[in-house]
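Structure first, sequence second, as always.
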């Protein structure tokens, strides 16, 4: 009993018994205080005259100041750590553990005291710091809803691979009625979709939604001017609610949903099995309506559904047509004229390469904006690696390559003349090269020299068995297209090309 902490009223009771003439043995037998400590208290009381009947006992403040935690007057009240107070306080404010402080003092400062002294000293420092006072937040019906995520159960896919999940929880602050949903991620799309299903579950929406600083909602957390995700801001504008972001590192501002998340994790998740995500959410919604919202709430002492019956008519009505859920994201146009969203590629005009655009993605459509102007619209792609390219978005050279395919080239060559068609066929029949650009280059000479000269140049190139772009262009540049075509000198190796017994030249083959 000698090490027990005594309160001021117990010292007053002991002093009263002493003034009445009771001995230390009698007081100790009543189990008020040990005889060793009574001896010190009596000695102090005699020295101060407290046992004289004609003098009043000191008040509680004086007794607390004299006895404090350790009433033994012979002990010193100054800690052996007092010389290191400033150093220990700096460590204490930095969150250093007591054992670490104690070891550093012994190692670097020659401290020889016990760790108990360190522990007592830290208790005093904590008492000096005090406890921050809090305020209970009051909410009117339909005033606010708090939203948060918590870790969910692990689900298995068809192959037996474990999948991590999250529990989205939204709680009406006044009635404590809630909506919860198990999801696979915390993306912006999931965040927006969960809000829509929340409002449909409640049949309306509150005036404001109190949220944490999740990245799917807040771009930059700040106590005074947080930056809201553009997608979330658009949803709030469409529905008509206001976003109330909590200050950073202050979860007490949304303590209602914090408790709601813990309640779901501890009361619903344990000892349950789930086949898949759909089954887990079905069980969760049944649990909310049958247990969570019908229990007597520990704070309101009423059933959440009973209070929700009062709050429901006060919620703001939902729009007749649900707003389109759209995700906004800032993207950069790559050198190939495409932007990337969710691992799929979408084209934009090639003049925007290197520019920053705003991408708006709905469930079915992807739109791209530059300086508030719409520059491209695509159907939404789902498979990673898929690409949606509009031909008009490509550079002119690329458009020509894509549009002027072999069939187009043969049709233009036929318009020019038989020799031009024969050259095009010869180039396309090459067993090694594609020669599409070569044929395109020959056809572009049409704009410079006309059909007649181009066909004549092709005829001369065929006569010399050189149906190539370089040959045709050289003939035109030197003006040889107007010269009569003469048979090239025959060599032993040209027997087949010049006819031979059964041979025919390429021109005769193509014309007949």
């Amino acid at each position: 009993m000698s090490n027990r902490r005594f309160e001021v009223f117990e010292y007053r009771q002991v002093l009263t018994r002493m003034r009445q003439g009771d001995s230390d043995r009698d007081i100790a037998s009543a189990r008020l205080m040990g005889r060793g400590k009574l001896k010190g208290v009596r000695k102090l009381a005699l020295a101060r005259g407290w046992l004289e009947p004609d003098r009043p006992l000191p008040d509680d403040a004086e007794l607390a100041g004299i006895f404090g935690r350790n009433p033994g007057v012979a002990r010193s009240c100054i800690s052996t750590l007092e010389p290191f107070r400033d150093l220990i306080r700096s460590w204490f404010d930095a969150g250093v553990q007591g054992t670490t402080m104690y070891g550093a003092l012994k190692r670097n400062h020659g401290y020889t005291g016990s760790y108990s002294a360190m522990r007592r000293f830290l208790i005093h420092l904590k008492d000096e710091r005090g406890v921050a006072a809090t305020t209970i937040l009051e909410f009117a019906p339909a005033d606010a809803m708090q939203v948060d995520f918590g870790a969910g159960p692990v689900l298995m896919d068809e192959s037996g691979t474990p999948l991590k999940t999250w529990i989205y929880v939204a709680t009406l602050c006044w009635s404590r009625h809630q909506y919860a949903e198990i999801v696979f991620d915390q993306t912006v799309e999931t965040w927006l979709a969960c809000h829509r299903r929340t409002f449909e579950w409640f049949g309306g929406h509150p005036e404001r939604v109190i949220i944490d600083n999740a990245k799917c909602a807040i771009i930059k957390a700040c106590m005074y001017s947080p930056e809201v995700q553009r997608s979330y801001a658009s949803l709030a504008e469409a529905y008509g609610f206001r976003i109330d972001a909590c200050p950073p590192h202050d979860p007490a501002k949304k303590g209602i949903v914090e408790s709601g998340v813990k309640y779901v994790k501890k009361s619903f998740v344990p000892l349950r099995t789930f086949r898949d995500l759909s089954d887990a959410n079905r069980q969760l919604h049944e649990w909310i309506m049958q247990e969570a919202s019908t229990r007597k709430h520990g704070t309101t002492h009423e059933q959440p559904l009973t209070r929700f019956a009062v709050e429901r008519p006060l919620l703001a009505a939902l729009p007749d047509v649900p707003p389109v859920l759209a995700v906004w994201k800032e993207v950069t146009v790559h050198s190939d004229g495409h932007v990337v969203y969710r691992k799929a590629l979408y084209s934009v005009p090639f003049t925007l390469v290197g520019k920053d655009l705003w991408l708006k993605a709905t469930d079915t459509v992807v739109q791209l904006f530059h300086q508030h102007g719409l520059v491209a619209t695509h159907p939404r792609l789902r498979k990673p690696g898929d690409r949606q390219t509009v031909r008009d978005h490509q550079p002119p050279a690329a458009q020509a390559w894509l549009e002027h395919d072999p069939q187009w080239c043969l049709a233009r060559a036929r318009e020019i003349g038989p020799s031009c068609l024969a050259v095009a066929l010869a180039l396309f029949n090459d067993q090694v090269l594609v020669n599409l650009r070569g044929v395109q280059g020959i056809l572009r000479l049409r704009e410079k020299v006309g059909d007649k000269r181009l066909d004549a140049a092709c005829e001369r190139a065929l006569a010399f068995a050189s149906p190539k772009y370089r040959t045709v262009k050289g003939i035109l540049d030197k003006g040889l297209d107007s010269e009569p075509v003469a048979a090239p000198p025959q060599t032993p190796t040209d027997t087949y090309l010049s006819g031979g017994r059964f041979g025919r030249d390429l021109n005769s083959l193509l014309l007949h």
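Margin note: The first strand starts at residue 144 and ends at 151.
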